[in-house]
Design brief:
This protein is α+β, with helices and mostly antiparallel strands and about 350 residues long. The chain contains nine helices and 16 strands.
């Protein structure tokens, strides 16, 4: 018979008949709702340091610096009657040095700002009048981070000596252009890549990790979705219209269960769960290798009034699929609709034959 998908009994039976099931079926109850509700996907704190990190600012080839040299007298090498300071613009060349008058080539690459400053000041002690040197970094690609994606002002942002965190960086780039609850932040540091939701960075300060020179941050407007199939009024893919969407809200957006087709005891939610969650829900998942994702089918019995409360607590995740099975009696109705016209035609022919003969 034509059908929108498997029946409730076939889903449950398929799991029972397979000694090593390709999926596990879990009935939604209070315990299941609590376990699933405690799940949090790995975020930045799982991959990067959480504690305060002051960036190690080291000059590199290509960096542009400003050297300000001050003298106590008005007739020195770098001072005059109108100014007691001279400003020098320099760029670290391919050899890793900068040129400072009366000092010569000064090694700057792979050194800290303060170390280079002290070297220049020391070299001028017997040439200038009580010299004092200030070294400022005008531009440094090596000591900057790149912000890309859905922000108002993407580009390269220098890393301050005091340090920056992810939210500070996004704010300096003008903020995210999309809705915060559907904005994802991707941080690449070397070969390590991690993802977090923007609002999670705000809610959990430990996820708002410090950035380091060379980091790349991609801000993406990526709406979460869920799909509703089966015996509902409106089968479709839906976007999350708020940060959290419950199973009850999802069924409501789909127009609820079909009065003439749906099996109220056969509301299913299909999802891939981490093995740590699956093993707390069903002992059949104990043999699953650690670190794998387990196909889990959650079953909700809407014929039980308590399930209406559970549906209000069970939160959906991105790419969840809800399926409402068709009631067995609806299958019989389909059968009668198919064979009904044929039976009616045969009856009519037989009647005519009896009345008028062969």
């Amino acid at each position: 018979m034509p059908a929108a998908g498997p029946t409730s009994s076939s889903i449950v039976q398929a799991e029972r008949d397979d000694p090593k099931p390709s999926f596990i079926v879990v009935k939604i109850n209070e315990h299941v709702t609590n376990v699933v509700g405690q799940f949090r996907p790995p975020s930045f704190s799982s991959f990067f340091k959480v504690s305060d990190v002051k960036p190690d600012i080291v000059l590199e080839v290509g960096d542009k610096v400003t050297v300000n040299i001050f003298e106590a007298g008005g007739d020195g090498l770098f001072s005059s009657t109108t100014s007691k300071a001279t400003q020098i613009q320099a760029q670290i060349d391919a050899t890793g040095t900068i040129f400072v008058p009366y000092v010569g080539a000064v090694q700057a690459a792979n050194r800290s700002v303060d170390s280079v400053r002290r070297s220049i000041e020391s070299a001028l002690e017997d040439k200038a009048i009580q010299p004092q040197v200030q070294l400022l970094v005008a531009q440094s690609l090596a000591n900057s981070v790149t912000v890309l994606g859905d922000v108002k002002n993407p580009g390269i942002v220098p890393v301050e000596i005091a340090g920056l965190r992810i939210l500070d960086l996004i704010a300096s780039a003008g903020g995210a252009v999309g809705t915060t609850y559907q904005t994802r932040v991707i941080l690449r540091r070397g070969t390590t890549v991690a993802t977090a939701d923007l609002e999670d960075l705000f809610d959990n300060p430990k996820e708002n990790v410090a950035i380091l020179p060379g980091d790349t941050i991609l801000v993406s407007d990526d709406p979460k979705t869920f799909t509703v199939l089966g015996a509902t009024s409106q089968r479709s893919e839906y976007k999350f219209d708020s940060r959290r969407v419950t199973l009850a809200e999802a069924l409501g957006r789909a127009g609820g269960l079909s009065d003439t087709l749906a099996d109220a005891k056969g509301v299913f939610l299909f999802r891939f769960e981490p093995d740590g969650i699956a093993k707390q829900l069903n002992e059949r998942a104990d043999t699953v290798p650690s670190g794998t994702m387990v196909p889990v089918v959650y079953r909700l019995d809407l014929a039980d009034p308590q399930s209406l409360f559970l549906a209000q607590l069970f939160e959906l995740r991105d790419e969840d699929m809800i399926y409402v099975a068709t009631h067995p009696s609806a299958q019989l109705g389909k059968f009668l609709q198919i064979v009904g016209p044929a039976v009616s035609t045969a009856t009519t022919v037989a009647t005519l034959q009896n009345r008028f003969g062969n």
